[in-house]
Amino acid sequence: MHSPPTTPSATTDVLVVGGGIIGLVTAWRAAQRGLSTAVVDPEPGGGAARVAAGMLAAVTELHYGEQTLLDLNLASARRYPDFAAELTEASGRDIGYRACGTLAVALDSDDRAHLRELHALQRGSGLESEWLSGRECRRLEPMLAPGVRGGLRVDGDHQVDPRRLTAALLVACERAGVVFHRAWAERLTVAGDRARGIVMADDTELAAGQTVLAGGSLSGRLAGVPDDVLPPVRPVKGQVLRLTVPKAYAPFLSRTVRAVVRGSHVYLVPRENGELVVGATSEELGWDTTVTAGGVYELLRDAHELVPGITELPLTETRAGLRPGSPDNAPMLGPTRLPGLQLATGHYRNGVLLTPITGDVLAHALVTGELSDEARPFTPRRFAVPSPASSPAPSPAPSPAASAALTEQPV
Ligand code: GLY
């Protein structure tokens, strides 16, 4: 039972629920368009981007059946250089954007067959990707294991530092006048068949013309969202390691190196500051964010097969985050069937890559009420199932999945 919320003091044009990179970029772009904008999150700048490696891997993470998503990924990747420059200018902070390229390698004949298929898919999709022999791979990256059997050189897959990106977005939002409410969103307010804002955990109501649900893996848990509008987002755990390359060892790797080892993806992302990020497990374990001995062992074992020298490096951090998975691995962007409620969630493996285009798409949708052409396939309405409870008017009754408020800490 909730006591009646306090009367809202003011109505903001846009209220973004969730202060991870997707919520922040949405707020920044909305504020730039002249909309009064607020973000509600107990710890803005948290979320999965605190863990993510920051690969911008539209080409090397291409999967069968994801060609539509590929177009969005490529469009966002193309925006990164200008986005990085604009955000650096707006915040005074570098975001660690590096056009360093990626090398995907094979360790045995099975891996090589897998990479050959990926290469064919890439070429068939019109993407630039060059097949290299094992020797050519090692010439590019001398730290690679002698057993590397071949690889794909993809110069168009870059990287950014997600922690720096987050820090820059926070400053840019503040400078653009975004207001931060450091609290949990308790429930969506629905009245007169439209979303009207949210109620926070202390029962304070925040009124808004448009509410954007950008809560990452928690986006499906906000109470008050009607069943047929609730985003079908689930947490997909990823464990990630951070190591440090001492100056004496540099340059250890000059680009991102990745492989599929015994069916598991492993990648090593070298930063200019000496950080080396090794990721990532992919585990469907609900809200569990425990770093396990098994997860760390498997990442180190697979990374060691690729680059034996990593065992010499200091291991400085182990962490687990939750990717916001969606039924088709693609995000949900823009207006829902409930007027006044938009989504920016379900980015799964591509949240960092899709940050620039998500900001642009949401700003456009908030100003015009429409999705831009490139974002049409990603309307949240593709998952909407009309339910008796919501017909003809959306019901404010939460589903069982939504009965818990947005009160769990994403990492
Ligand atoms: N895109 C990298 C990952 O999800 O692990």
Automatic annotation (TrEMBL):
Claim: Oxidoreductase is one of the keywords in the record: yes
UniProt keyword Acyltransferase, yes or no: no
GO biological process, alphabetically ordered: thiamine biosynthetic process; thiamine diphosphate biosynthetic process
Metabolic or biological pathway: Cofactor biosynthesis; thiamine diphosphate biosynthesis
Domain FAD dependent oxidoreductase: 13-364
Domain of life assignment: Bacteria
Annotated Gene Ontology cellular component terms: cytoplasm
Keywords: Oxidoreductase, Thiamine biosynthesis
InterPro entries in the record: FAD-dep_OxRdtase, FAD/NAD-bd_sf, Gly_oxidase_ThiO
Catalytic reaction list: glycine + O2 + H2O = glyoxylate + H2O2 + NH4(+)
Listed EC numbers: 1.4.3.19
GO molecular function: flavin adenine dinucleotide binding; glycine oxidase activity
Ranges of compositional bias, category Pro residues: 389-399
SUPFAM superfamilies, per the entry: FAD-linked reductases, C-terminal domain (SSF54373), FAD/NAD(P)-binding domain (SSF51905)
Name of the protein in question: glycine oxidase
Lineage: Bacteria, Bacillati, Actinomycetota, Actinomycetes, Kitasatosporales
